[in-house]
Amino acid sequence: xxxxxxxxxxxxxxxxxNARYELLCEGARSLGxxxxxxxxxxxxxxxxxxxxxxxxxxxxxxNGAAKRARRGLAGMAEAVLFHRQCWIxxxxxxxxxxxxxxxxxxxxxAWTDDPSNVDRRFERVRMRMRDRSAxxxxxxxxxxxxSVDARRREAETLTLFLQGNAQIHCDMIAQLPLVSSADGDDxxxxxxxxxxxxxxxxxxPGASARDQIARFVSGAGPARINLSRCVLDRRAKGIxxxxxxxxxxxxxxxPGCQALWDGRYRIINSHPAQPLVVGPFENNQDCPPCEPVRxxxxxLPGGVVSRALAxxxxxxxxxxxxxxxxxxxxxxxxxELSVSRYFAHFDLFLPEFESRVADxxxxxxxxxxxxxxxxxxxxxxxWQTN
Length: 386
Known about the structure:
The protein is an alpha+beta fold. It contains 13 helices and 16 strands. Helix 6 (134-165) packs across helix 7 and helix 6 (134-165) runs parallel beside helix 12 (355-364). Mean pLDDT is 82; it is low at 64-71 and 379-386.
């Protein structure tokens, strides 16, 4: 299979990685397969971790932001769900590149080297060409294992916290309680995650933003701040999160096509001939809101509801009996339109150790659970045993 089409001038390796997995996933579907096995080795893992480690700020090593950044370091996961469809499995992450090649040579199995593997324009190649000692590699692997274990345990506690405390109102407002300081870390992580999902972002806010969240929760500063394209609104009844009214797109979905709106909603236009125009509801206030909005809980703050509603998608053109109006997760105003929530943070690459967090978020938003990892049962049993 060949990657066709224009190539980006910047970020080529990231774009190529995504294109490679797209093609592999397409090939897997054509075979009825649900998993792809790759030959990433221990050396690839060490290089990945080292590159991420260099991005941790060198200054302020004793402050909370730097500590959280170091704790968040990780290499490649042994199992990753791609596009909610296909699991990428990496069973050779504990095998060195030299050992793998020696085994292939002994078995008279040939392989193809990617020319970019020796191109020093790329960060990974420069990292690969550095001198490394066996002792340094072993220390890196130990640090990586501790980091992954910490992230797995944090994911477990975050899952339980969200399950017991988070509410989602009509997929456009997230609500969290103001909890005691004993649960403060879980609340801060829940805010960071929900802001990422509500704002349509792919990545969690950086380490410095976690200090901003802590100040916000404690009441040290404004009662309303922006984070990850999301508004954090602190009220007596708790904390409300919703998409801010800024940089909201208007896009046309061609007949028979689908598109992502604002990184938050997948819009599918099945009409054979008519394009569909989707934009922010604030630009189309004459449109009637959908049924779930009319049945909102009456105790929600009015300002929160009106600002959140303005940042939601709406159909801006009507055709063939299709009503203009605000779109909701799971809503199908006609047989020719479907709308579903999209989590940029989970739906492209979902590491296995985050799958339970992703599932509870899917439940909160009324989405189906993610496909189960082939490794998840063993992982969960191991976590409980330890």
